[in-house]
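Hello K.,

You asked for the raw outputs rather than the summary table, so here they are, unedited. I folded two proteins back to back in the same session to keep the settings identical. This is the first:
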Amino acid sequence: MTLPALAACITLGILPLVWLPALPNLWSIWGIIILGCLLACLRWQMPRYIGFTLLAFAWGILAAMQAIWPAQHLPGAHRQVEIVITETDNMTRHQGQIVRLNGERLFPSTGITLYGQYLPESVCTGQRWAMTVRVRAVHGQLNEGGFDSQRYAFASHQPLNGRIIDAQLQDNRCSWRAEYLQSLTRTLDSRQWQHVILALGMGERSTLASNVKDILRQTGTAHLMAISGLHIALSAMLGWFIVRGVQFFFSGYGINWRLPLLTGLAFAVCYAWLTGLQPPAFRTAISLSVWALLRLSGRLWSPWQVWICCVGMILFTDPLAALSYSLWLSAFAVAALLFWYQWLPVPIKPRSWLGQAAVNLLHLQAGMMLLLLPIQLSIFHGISLSSLVANIVAIPLVTFVTVPIILLGMVLHLTGPAFMQEACWYLADQSLAGLFAFLSWLPPGWLNVDTRWQGVAWLPWLLLIAARFRLWRSVPAVCLACLTALAFPLWHTERAGGWSVHMLDVGQGLAMVVERNGKAILYDTGIGWPGGDSGQQLIAPWLRWHALQPEGIILSHEHLDHRGGLDSLMKVWPRLWVRSPLGWAGHAPCFRGEKWQWQGLTFTAHWPLRGTQTQGNNRSCVVKVDDGRYSMLLTGDVEAQGEMALLSRYWTHLQSTLVQVPHHGSNTSSSLPFVQRVGGQAALASASRYNAWRLPSSKVIKRYSEQGYQWFDTPHQGQITVSFTSRGWEIHSLRDQLLPRWYHQWFGVPSDNG
């Protein structure tokens, strides 16, 4: 079996980790291994391929089981651990590797993220701490089209979160990288673009200012700020040129072509280590090592063979990298470049080298912009219209000017003269000033794109294939059918008459979307926190991705976990009307007796009373949404006192098909008379798993269950969608039904939410 074929088997075998709803048990894995070994020993080619693919599949499953073991077994009690710090913000967030558990060596070590507390002494990467920690399994919010934090955590080998109970410093020595980074940070302290220099040179992107990140996003140049193949390849080229320069003085007998290759590889690996072996840098180092070994083999390998060997080795080394979006973005980008240059070479050959360089760069950027559309829309939900112009200037400047100067400055920072260091940092700072002045001059180019365009994004690939083989002449019907199938979501409309209610997973808050005919009304807007809110980071992207046009907001009451995203949503859609019981400027009233129609649905407000002096939870605007057959009661945070007042006056109007559980499932709400009077068939609660109040209350869950309700909550189900049609209604939970994945499961102690 050839190496590319083996790499393809490894890739195909590990790829199912992305989609598996659950991991097979150990006995099944043994069966897969035995079958794979038997098939791999056969003489026929196809059975051998299948055998190696099965063995790779078992290898990936075992890696996944090893990754979830800490999340399944360590939560639920205080643990005595020894942790080596791998990353810190020098305040209250630290990442580390647990190397000892209860005094015993833990192999392999497992990653943990510690939140919310200062350590008793100054902290830096490389230190070793003895800690007592309360371990929590990773658990993230889950919404359609949203950021998948659990998948990211497993891809990053960080399956645990933790709270520090006690900590003692065992070894205060910082790593060499940490000391170097601290020294470099002090040297660059006076530079305007200090944080960008550190991002380009050391991969420290966490300190980039929000306005800088926004400029990079708007112009499609964020990829230049990551330690990626570009930076590692430049360091490899630096090592290669140094050795070739020295070999210039050797005689022909003293020159070995392998020495520059191996020196460049050593430079690349050392630089990847210096930048903290971040996943993109680690994967680039592996790819360069594979490429170097293939070169040393003495055979001529095609670009596609090198590509599949690199992908296969990355996945064999780290099967959980299959969950990494950045891996597939990088692999897809390289594949797109190979496809682009092989199928559509540079069509123009200018006479001057400068003109040739300009044409090559334009050709490269056009290919990247067109062929990366599918994966870019899938991951980022949008495209930058100014990326072509921005990258034509930014890529040469960063690649051939800024990064080489920064690398030289980093080398000189170790032993070089101070004036040469200052010259390097001055030139790097000025080049970045010019770059960001140009990027800021460009008009904002980011275009949010909804899910309907996912199929259309593949058109550049298909058009290129059709043009190359002249398929539009030989099989026009097939071309037309493909075009129609890809564009189907754009002109297809949902069947009229149906409507949906979505309870978004916003953590310890509430945000619900009532949807019909492509329009939406929101009931509450999630939580807010310093520097962000649910409206900006979750609700607005969710609405755009689903091509929904919001028309209004019903705000239940004034607490921040319900109105946190209001201002952000009003900035995006300033014409939204708002109803609330708060009496704020611009808010329409939401009191008992208010009734209005929207898209054929009837909205009726049942609480509070007009002129009430009640504040807080019991002033929540209770609204019933009704289509004449099915209904849903939206209750906000109303508590038992408000429920009793509702029952004493308006109990005949409260019966509903479904109910949003009041106050996140707190035992101060959902009194038995209220639950009985509503008489619903399902109850939906919004909360975060690890909340300080341990909501939803087990008593409340039991109360609803005993009255015949089906129980759903966002910690267990993620986003919850209720669809109403003329045939009935049904509930779809994202974690269990729409997107079941092994890495989305509820890990750790089943009852642990504190």
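The second followed immediately with the same parameters:
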Amino acid sequence: MLIKCLFSFLLITALIGCNKTLTVEEQALEKIEVLEALMSEAKSKSIDVTREETLLWFSKEFIKFADWDEAHKPEVEKLFGYYSFYEKDKAKYAEELPDFERGKVIEILDKGIAELNKVLDGTIKRRPVSKIDWGNVEVADNMLKNNGKPVFLFDYFSKTVGAPLTDKNVYNDHLGAIFHGGQRLYEVNMDRAVNPFILNEDRTFNEKIELITEIPDTNVGFLILWNMGMPQWIHDKEPEVTKGRSLFTGFDIDNPLMRDVWSDVMKKTGELTKGKKVTQLGYILSNEPHWFSEKGHWTQNYKEMNSISSYTVKKFQNWLADKYSNNIKKLNKNWESDFKEFNAVEIEIPMEKSLRGKPIWYDWCRFNMDRSTDWFTFLRDQLLETNPDADTNIKIMPKMFREDYRSHGIDLEALTDITTMIGNDGKAYGGRNLRATKPEKWEEKYAYWWDELSLPYDFLESVAPNKININSETHFLSASAWRDMNMSPDYVRSVFWLATLQGMDAGISWFWARDPDGSPEDRLEGELDFFDPALAGSYAGSANMQPQTVNEVAQVYMDMNSFSEEIVALREQRRPIRIFHSETSAINKKHYMTEQFDLYESLHFEGFPVGYATEKVIKKQDNSKWDAIVVFKTDYVTDSEFETLQSYLNNGGTVILDSKNSLSKNEYGESRGKSLSKGKGNLIVMDVANTVLEIQQKALEVVSDALPEVTLTESNGTAYKGCYWRVVKNEKGYLVNILNIGKNDAKLNLGLKNGKATTITNIMTGDVLNSEFELKSNGVLLLEIKE
């Protein structure tokens, strides 16, 4: 039978090659027949074909989508025109799209046919797929579980809005089946979102609450609070309600009426949804919150923090009175002002950027963070009154931490502390930012831009090591400033694997907007009437036009879930080196996070996850979980941060200080009169002239006993390392995961420190490797090493 299938495959391939009259669609349909025949052969031999079932589903769907696109070229052209980078050639893109999609279907079918043939002839040995039971997900300690094993979930956010959650063409094993109460809508009724529109002026609840309660209690899911709009009666009652609004929070979070309204909404929501499966991934307390308060920031064009309300001013005055212990003279000295009392203090918002590094800048930015933390604490507490076991997270943009900006009001550590889950919408670019006018710095070294994903994730896993990570809007497949129609499936596999290895438990991608007939969802048809600076152009060039991309998302999750226990073991590896992070320096210094990245990057490729330490981490966590803290270009710290580091040394810890400049100032730039002393610990003070590499080498030397017993050397034609790897010892030897995120293929040499001979097996395919082998750019390996 196998020989017959192979003969049929070769015959059809030959016919396709010779018969020039076959259309691209006909070629795809022929290949579908070949795959179906091979699947029948595999089933007869009890070989799992779950992967091929998904490949087949996407192939048939995209042939249908291509037919729709071909029949509706004017509509498709219009959609391309909404995205500035495609607008000029929108007619060309619309003309080429149908056969482009069919051609990509042929590519994935060719790849799938070749792999299944190797499975059938024994060349590849792969584990059966551990399928997700979407109705039987358990929220356990530090992981999600399914049938007793760790499970990683995937889906698409804002999923073909308007389609019923029970539609199997949209919610299935191929696209994911996470139910959600809060699609990203812009109509007044806010379909299935938690928002004030469910509340009448007399504080009774209206029929819109059924959009939350009618969600079937069958699948794992999440509820999201949508903070954009509010009923007219609130505007009429409170004239200041939109002062101090932000891009996706359309009201003043310090407004007492809004607090009363949201108290009612949260308590009722908690009461009605308590124990429902749609809350298993948490109540998402906000979509991408930030309150940028500096002049010239792009958010100013969307009315973000163009002014502040009297309520915010009063709250700031009270915060200052507490911060300065009611000493107005001290504030006036810092601010170079002459206020008579704290109730008279004024501040201009948005602020001039030139104020950064001055006390007035620090005070506002620190207050802005504290007030947003207070707001989210309030929302959480209202929910817990009626649903005390509720899980919560906040969809925080990791770039709020990774970038140098600090006027945004987001304290990532504090907001992660007050919620039970890590929330985010982590992002990576598979290519150059389309707004860039020249090659970007990362292109010299790497296959894709990963730092906004990796650095924040390592920080989050350091400050909240026992919390589940919910990325409720992954921007790995497209973003407002990046997309690639010809996206490499290897990139897709690498970036989702990297994110999962670094802690992501659920990745809900942006976005799926195809209705089952192939047409775009209702919001993208006709005249677009909604507020969002990005949504209108999101469809063009997205995953909705790329069968190779969405198929690979499903395929990599099938593979990761088949090896979920191994991946969890790898990601729970100890973090021996901790980089000290101070929001005090991040607020005051213009390039603190950029400087920090240089050190982080130097440690990223050494076979263990980089860790972070903050004042709270040192105080709250077992200090034996790491061997050394590196303080790098951290000039400004509060007295409390300084004393915490000193206490750590007094208790026997190790601190590597990059120079005497670090820790030398308080939050207001005043010189600190003392320096760290070693106490019972080990204090290493480097020379100010030392390079990042010298500091890295010193850190590795200090923790050498904690480094992996496995060694990996790399040659990739550049001066930089590109392979991110982790090791964990198990009963058979060592488990090693390697991801080549470098721009070139890498020649690797893998061995043991003790020099003993090894057997290296690729446990995803059964292949046995020599100690020297190559790994392609974007390649992923999961290996087992035995002596």
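The radius of gyration is 27 Å.

Happy to rerun anything if the numbers look odd on your end.

Regards,
P.
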